Write the structure tokens for this entry.
Amino acid sequence: MYNGLPTATQALFSRSRKSPRHRHGSYGEKALADPQAARYQGAMSDQTPFEIYVVTTPGLESVLCAEMKAAGFARPQPGKGGVVTHGGWREVWRANLELRGATRVLARIGAVRVLHLAQLDKRARKFPWADFLHADVPVRVDASCTQSRIYHAGAAAQRIARAITEELGAPIAEDAEITIKARIDDDLCTFSIDTSGEPLHKRGFKEAVNKAPMRETMASLFLRQCGYDGKEPVVDPMCGSGTFVIEAAEIAAGLKPGRARSFAFEKLASFDAAAWAALKAAGTTTPPTVRFYGSDRDAGAIKMSQENAGRAGVSAWTDFHHHAISDLNPPEGGPGLVILNPPYGGRIGDTRLLYALYGTLGKVLMSRFRGWRVGIITNEPALAKVTELPFLPNPAPVLHGGIKVTLYRTGPLGA
């Protein structure tokens, strides 16, 4: 699991997992991991891999894992709430810059075994924070405790924060861009740096949003779940602020999702501005061979979508029109994907009032979109059923705005 840790620390971690918890007290000081040994050796170098944890929306871990495999990340393994991979700082930068489905990227920089707060204080003071942090850049510390003798997360965070500021000199601030995350699990305290800062769905383009918008990160993974590969047209007949349409166009053009924003890792000691500039400039943008369409009965939504598409640089490949579902027709260019995040109970309105809308949607798609695939996100199985569309088996539900939603997918209609 902790393949990025030195051998001695791996062995200690393995031993603690196999030993009953009541035996932990029998460990002598010599058996405890030394703080200097519990660091990622060569973490400042791109040649020595360390563990990188890429966070995503729970329920979409396997989809992000597939994206990471396709992008060439080393041996990604899905877990609860994210995907583990290994690499150097370049891979950390690349994950933030290029992964469309990632929420944030954590760099696991080391671990120490701790049985009480005084020990945590001592070992946090000896940890090589200067390898990762600048003395003049503010930091914040978050902590969590699970099945450990240290059970007070707030007290643990205070000890680590005090160690950083007194040993390194870095100020502590609640609004700091750099966050150290300490996870104390079974008496092993793992230190990670949140290298993203602002959540990665904040890409810097969507200034205008409609009610209950779909996050870009989720939209990209839903598109992938529907089999979208950037080579077919996409239609969103309830486009809201244009997320699905813009995301599909960016994928088709090969645009990097993080191209227009900054990241927390730019303030770390490991940051190389020249290497980062080269990474951002690498790759090519290719104009798509197909177009992407959004429509909505709300004229304000169309205006928002057009403005957001302009800021994202995809206006040349997108079209937005003001009309109702009943006026929806397939665009030229052959079959593709219809995907939408329509109103549903708990998100917008009364479920009973939505049956007619979903029924109309199903009739329009079945009668006019032969050969097209469909993806509908909703939390109500009854609403999906009203469409009478031939849905495939459902993937796992995911949380969207505090509500569990499911992606209902079809194969080519009429096939």
